Amino acid sequence: MRILIVEDDVSGAEVMARGLSDAGHECIVSHDGAAGLESARKGGFDVMIIDRMMPCLDGVGLVETLRRDGDETPVLFLSALGEIEDRVTGLRAGADDYLVKPYAFAELIARVEALSRRRETGSVLTQLRVGDLEMDLIARRVHRAGREIDLQPREFQLLEFLMRHAGQAVTRTMLLEKVWEYHFDPQTNVIDVHISRLRSKIDKGFERAMLETIRGAGYRLDA
Amino acid sequence: MPDKRDAPVGGLLRLFRAAPFRLTLLSLALFAFAGAAFMAYVYVAAAGEARRRTDAEIRREADNLVEVYDRAGAAALNTVLVSRMAGERRFLYLLLTPDGRKISGSLARSPVEGFSGEPTWIRFSLSGFDEDGRPRSIPARGFQQRLPNGGVLFVGADTGDDQDFIVTIVRGLWGAGALVVVLGITSGLLVSRNFTRAMTGLTNVVASARNGDLTARAAVRGAGDELDQLAEGLNDMLDRLDRSMSAHRHAGDAIAHDLRSPLTRLKARLESALLDMEAGRGDARQALRQALDDTDGVLRTFSAVLAISRLQAAGEAPNAVVFDPAGLVGDMAELYGPLCEDKGLEIASDIAAGLTLRGNPAFLAQALANLVDNAVKYTPAGGAVMVRLRRRACGDTEISVTDTGPGVPDFDRDRVVERFVRLENSRNLPGAGLGLSLVAAVAQAHGGRLELGEGPGAYDGSGPGLRAALILPSLT
Q1: Does ipTM come in above 0.90?
Q2: How far, in Å, CA of B375 to CA of B400, rounded?
Q3: A22 in reach of chain B (CB within 8 A)
């Protein structure tokens, strides 16, 4: 993936670029909003990571300008401002996701990959398929290798999110945000317990486990 | 404290500069103008009225005399005139023969020059003396007409009394005007002194706040007027500011307190990992992992402290919306369900439908999550956790979490709700104490409170349990 990083904290941007490059992505870094806008206008990015507070042109202004120009590249906002209203203003400006500093690096990678994926699967789906796991979004039924799996409504939502992001790491915070719509850090292992329930339903009795735990990051559903 | 540096002159000067004093002077000037117009009107009206009255009396007397003449002739008229002049001397008379010689009368000659024969009114002066015996000229009016026999009858009256009456009125009006001016200035001074004193109090409070002292408060005089409203507004603002400042101070203290030990631990871990690596012994990975976990703990504490201090500083819930909390509470019970089952706890919920409250759902969810989290953390296996949403009889909304854990002793309940207080026996558990502080801060920001009480009592060998309730005010 080609990623544009617009971040005025030079060493922070450097660490981020190195980490993303290690994960196999190509990174271009700008250190202020004006330079970021110039780079962004050259196009060709899959995702942009934009810091909220920057000199010259701040993140909100930058994203608003890009969206006005018709640039629909997914944007992840980084911000030290974590209040709900800050998140709301950020998303309203046209950002697609919002990550509060300080963040875990695994969280950043997971969200960046989720954003790039979102663009690819923009069309309305009625069926999801990951390996031998099939989900019918209309009938709300799940089968693995032809065997029907009985899921609670929340488990269904959880699996749907994992299937939509198959092959990518998803973090506990992402799951809490997207599946339960709560915006706080899960203090205990609440999410893990839900995952292990789901895992026992979809993986138990099958030769290969699909739902993997990634240490320090979260979970990944693999075909 | 009000500042006493001002010398009396300075005080007076300030008084004159005071807005209400200037307003008083302005209204006084307007009033004086209106008063002068009023006086002029009274003067004109009174003078006109006095003249009309005198003229009417003169006319009636002249008519009476003409009637005497018509009835009884010139000789009788003369007799009447003589007897009138001997009596009260209200009128001035003059009776002339057709060729202009005086027959009788109190005037030596007619003041009417070149009498045409037409009835004529005239204004003239008499010479007389004032009360002190000094000669003065007395104003008079008269009416002259020709009698049927060709003779001339003049009837007049001294209008000096009328004049005196008018002068008295004018003098009285001047006196009243002067009194009004004096009273106006005095009341202006009094009003502006009161105002200036109140304003000085407010100004001093503002000045000391500007110099960093947030403890000064403006006096509210209890009059309930704009100045009192201003003072109350100022005091309220200072309260909030003070609260916010002390919240920040406390947050600083708390951050220092809560972060110093984990940061020290983190540093030690990294140092020993580095030493191990340099010495080529062991695997540093484990130490680094633990260091990362420590960092997460530090960051979590940091965000909790930050959230608490922000809530306390704001004094109200940001981005509040009106919503039905049933979904939020139900989802939370559902979110924690599997965790409880894994820990061997029974979780139940009792959720009233159709309630509405005003608040920030994210903060309330965080607060409720902290309560459920605590309950799950402290309740031993075999126990139960109950999440409940209901409306209290007084209309308040209550979201409570009851567990069958050890509970919090009565004497510690108030303390755990205080800012950043942790019970000794929970100090080694991560996040405890701060969790409840955050709940309390969320409750306060919503105009409510966190109530801690006893749970259901002894339960399967443990208890008495804790009942933590978020009490939120009803919408109305």
Answers
A1: no
A2: 11
A3: no
